[in-house]
Design a protein that fits this description.
Blueprint lengths: L5 E7 L21 H18 L5 E8 L7 H14 L2 E11 L3 H4 L2 H7 L3 E7 L3 H6 L6 H14 L2 E8 L6 H14 L2 E7 L7 H7 L8 H17 L4 E3 L2 E3 L6 H7 L3 E5 L4 E6 L2 E7 L3 H11 L3 E6 L2 H12 L6 E2 H8 L3 H4 L2 H9 L3 E3 L3 E4 L1 H5 L1 H8 L2
Parallel strand pairs: 1-2, 1-9, 2-3, 3-4, 4-5, 5-6
Antiparallel strand pairs: 6-8, 7-8, 10-11, 11-12, 13-15, 14-15
Helix pairs in contact: 1-2, 2-4, 7-9, 15-17
The structure holds S-adenosylmethionine (SAM) and iron/sulfur cluster.
The site of S-adenosylmethionine has 16 residues, from strand 2, strand 4 and strand 5.
């Protein structure tokens, strides 16, 4: 079995402005008291360490929101605190999500000095009109400049693009992908645009203000993306994530392999193995509620519940089948106490194997490329 990871997720919930497609826990505030936020994050970490003593940290991830709006001194204080609370692997991966605005790019050296060794940039598009459609506050030149600074500053870096945008064709996406690949170093996240309830896009899409590619075109764009990236040696290791071998995000692999992780900050989730149970932790979602909880009771947890056995099976499958490597049978047995063939619906499993959506051998349960494209239907068949 591959060595289990143990990750720490730190949520920074603030953004300069709210993008119309985004349903992440991100908020715009005129002012924040950063020293107070820093103290609260350190407090929440101290509490989390009491639940997970002696675990060896293999990755730290600053996500958001926009963690690149953080003062690098806050980032440094969090990293130092983690090192004081847990043993940390020598080759720990420390990632930070950054927006490619020029102001933030100027802070990259500060983040590097704090210990960050991997940056993930939200480029979203290399087409000017589409950046405005997506409500981004950066332009294409700023994006390219931020990529250059990130490449020069960090050992590892990745960027995100959103595709299946209104008006996109396979030809225009191919040209954009080529441009992206000229600048990529080892890792790219390529997400299909989804319309999420509660976002500005949800309303304007419902009113017919824009149209999205139909299912056929969206499918063609997905297949084109997979083939294009595989050709250049960066195959999808997860539905939307592509990497050169060895450049996968170890932190995200920790989620998908259903290994343990701590989540601190507003709305952060965790999964912790304690006394044979898998404990799901959730922090208060609103920034102010989380801050006040840490300041009054010493932690930001809103709930801490053991995952029920049937839920645990669903979570293992939902996470692991996203990965090209699938789910290790040894991990599956460790987590669920049964072989996949005993835990899954025998008829559904046989059907999914017959249709070429699933493979199962003595080492791995995997969804094939076709299976990963229709994962929800595959999951329904596999569940007892
Ligand atoms: C937490 S967000 C981004 C972090 C950073 N604040 C930024 O915007 O660059 C992570 C990524 O999810 C993707 N994303 C967010 N909402 C999406 C949506 N509705 N459809 C597709 N991708 C989305 C974007 O590519 C984004 O960069
Ligand atoms: S996409 Fe990034 S910058 Fe935009 S609102 Fe979401 S978290 Fe904030």
């Amino acid at each position: 079995m591959t060595t289990p990871g143990f990750g720490i997720y730190v949520h920074w919930p603030f953004c300069r402005s709210k993008c119309p497609y985004c349903d992440f826990n991100s908020h715009v505030r005129a002012e924040i008291d950063e020293a107070r936020w820093r103290r609260a994050l350190l407090g929440d970490l101290t509490h989390a360490a009491t639940l997970t003593p002696r675990r060896r940290v293999t990755s730290i991830f600053f996500g958001g929101g926009t963690p690149s709006l953080m003062d690098p001194r806050t980032t440094a204080a969090v990293i130092d605190k983690i090192a004081a609370l847990w043993p940390v692997a020598e080759d720990v991966e420390i990632s930070l999500e950054a927006n490619p605005n020029s102001v933030e790019a100027q802070r990259f050296r500060g983040f590097r000095a704090a210990g960050v060794n991997r940056v993930s940039l939200g480029i979203q598009s290399l087409v000017p009109a589409d950046l405005s459609f997506l409500g981004r506050t950066h332009d294409v030149d700023e994006a390219k400049a931020a990529i250059a600074i990130a490449t020069a500053t960090f050992e590892r870096f990745s960027f995100d693009l959103i595709y299946a945008r209104p008006g996109q064709t396979t030809a225009s996406w191919a040209a954009e992908l080529r441009e992206a690949l000229d600048r990529a170093v080892g890792h790219l996240s390529l997400y299909q645009l989804t319309i999420e309830p509660g976002t500005a896009f949800h309303n304007s899409y419902a009113r017919g203000n824009f149209a999205l590619p139909d299912d056929e075109l969206a499918g063609a764009l997905y297949e084109q993306t997979q083939a294009f990236l595989a050709d250049v040696g960066m195959p999808a290791y997860e539905i939307s994530n592509h990497a050169l071998p060895g450049q996968e995000s170890r932190h995200n692999l920790t989620y998908w392999r259903y290994d343990d992780y701590v989540g601190v900050g507003p709305g952060a989730h965790g999964r912790l193995s304690i006394a044979g149970e898998k404990i799901a932790t959730t922090c208060h979602r609103s920034p102010e509620a989380w801050l006040s909880a840490v300041e009054t009771v010493g932690h930001g947890l809103d709930s801490q519940i053991a995952v029920a056995p049937d839920e645990r099976l669903i979570e293992v499958l939902m996470m692991g089948l996203r990965l090209a490597e699938g789910i290790e049978v040894d991990r599956f047995v460790n987590e669920l106490g049964r072989q996949p063939a005993a835990a899954l619906n025998p008829k559904g499993l046989a059907l999914m194997i017959d249709l070429g959506f699933i493979t199962l051998d003595s080492r791995h349960l995997k969804a094939t490329v076709d299976g990963r494209q229709r994962l929800n239907s595959v999951l329904e068949q596999l569940l007892p």
